[in-house]
From TrEMBL:
CDD domains: ABC_PstB_phosphate_transporter. Signal peptide: none annotated. The lineage of its organism: Bacteria, Bacillati, Actinomycetota, Actinomycetes, Streptosporangiales. Keywords: ATP-binding, Nucleotide-binding, Translocase, Transport. This is Phosphate ABC transporter ATP-binding protein PstB. GO terms for molecular function: ATP binding. Residues 32-271 form the ABC transporter domain. Pfam families: ABC_tran. InterPro entries: AAA+_ATPase, ABC_transporter-like_ATP-bd, ABC_transporter-like_CS, P-loop_NTPase, PstB-like. Gene3D superfamilies: P-loop containing nucleotide triphosphate hydrolases. The keyword Translocase applies.
Length: 285
């Protein structure tokens, strides 16, 4: 049951962040349509009955307390949950109008078109160059790799920092550089969507700021869905925000539920549900 509208303006964010909140474009032609989606691990229903649409070339943030199913929901968008034994997705997720879980859909092709960046930077133990070139090579690209590596590293705002050490091991880079390298590796195969699961949680504030700037640059060409615990980050970078929380059903079983999904500017200033306001103002979570 929805609760009465919250107050006129939520005090949970600094004034400097509130001032920079921008109104998102309308969802005219969503790239994802999520209809009554639930996710099961065996018999356990981790996420229940999610409905939402995700806009093209927008940044959508998923926020909420630990255990509410944010990462579980995120992994549905490129079928990463398929890799976890016993996992089942109910309902329907459409990607460009096609059922993402249809019998004739190749999960490997799904993951090529919908890339993933994880919480902890995970570069391959190879050279910087080979980290970027790996995906294109797997997809049969052999010519023009030098140009592709440079172009991709420029897109990831990393070229100037690594152009003279492309043959060095990627593990020699700083944490923030490694995460930008992983983003570059994801976009090297030209996906349409980039999923990011807490991409800044292991980074310092300077590296985090660079990743946030990069996300906003990439959103000109890619759709981005990000899971974050940092509400100020969601407010700074996203066009729309989904707030999930964990609730108990009649049997006392905990499950994740989407409470509110709205333009970020509206959700963070005039949330329509008092559970959202309680979370973004720090009263729980």
């Amino acid at each position: 049951m929805n609760n009465p509208p919250a107050g006129p303006a939520s005090p949970g964010l600094p004034a400097s962040v509130k001032q920079n909140l921008q109104e998102a474009p309308d969802l005219v032609d969503p790239i994802f349509q999520v209809e009554d989606v639930s996710v099961f691990y065996g018999d356990y229903e981790a996420v229940r009955g999610v409905d939402m649409k995700i806009g093209q070339k927008q940044i959508t943030a998923l926020i909420g307390p630990s255990g509410c199913g944010k990462s579980t929901l995120l992994r549905c968008f490129n079928r990463m949950n398929d890799l976890i034994p016993g996992t089942r997705v109910g309902g329907k997720i459409s990607f460009r109008g096609e059922d993402l879980y249809g019998d004739d859909v190749d999960p490997i092709e799904v993951r090529r078109r919908i890339g993933m960046v994880f919480q902890k930077p995970n570069p391959f133990p190879k050279s910087i160059y080979d980290n970027i070139a790996y995906g294109p090579r797997v997809n049969g690209i052999r010519r023009g790799l030098d140009d592709l590596v440079e172009q991709t590293l420029r897109q990831a705002a990393l070229w100037d920092e690594v152009k003279d050490k492309l043959k060095q091991n990627a593990l020699s880079l700083s944490g923030g550089q490694q995460q930008r390298l992983c983003i570059a590796r994801a976009i090297a195969i030209r996906p349409e969507v980039i999923l990011m699961d807490e991409p800044c949680s292991a980074l310092d504030p300077i590296a985090t700021a660079k990743i946030e700037d990069l996300m906003q640059d990439l959103a000109r060409n890619y759709t981005i869905v990000i899971v974050t615990h940092n509400m100020q980050q969601a407010a700074r970078v996203s066009d729309r925000t989904a707030f999930l929380t964990a609730e108990l059903d009649s049997a006392g079983v905990r499950y994740g539920k989407l409470i509110e999904y709205e333009q970020t500017s509206k959700l963070f200033t005039t949330p329509s549900d008092d559970r959202t306001e309680a979370y973004i103002t720090g009263r729980f979570g």
